[in-house]
Design brief:
The protein is 76% helix and 0% strand. With 95 residues, it is mostly helical.
Length: 95
């Protein structure tokens, strides 16, 4: 992120908890997207933040299309794989 400040640590920890919550089924995709958006909105613009946002966008786009099609309960295998890849990359960015 932008350094080792307490705010960066707090945001990073919150984002990690949301990722874990989604993977364990305790957090919905919508909540994860909102949580990650909140993190992004509090970090300075940088290459890191733009990469973070691009992974967030993958999740947002999948959610929006699934919502429009009323398929949130049954995401396609491709969508599930794309979500997994985005989550892995977000996890790497937050480590």
């Amino acid at each position: 992120m932008s350094g080792d400040s307490e705010m960066d640590d707090w945001l990073r920890d919150g984002a990690r908890q949301s990722l874990q919550g989604y993977r364990s089924g305790r957090v919905t995709l919508r909540r994860l997207i909102d949580d990650l958006d909140e993190v992004w909105s509090h970090v300075p613009k940088s290459e890191w933040s733009e990469h973070f946002r691009s992974q967030w966008w993958v999740l947002e786009e999948i959610y929006a299309v699934a919502l429009d099609r009323r398929e949130l309960d049954q995401l396609s295998l491709d969508d599930q794989k794309s979500i997994g890849t985005a989550l892995d990359e977000l996890g790497r960015l937050l480590s």
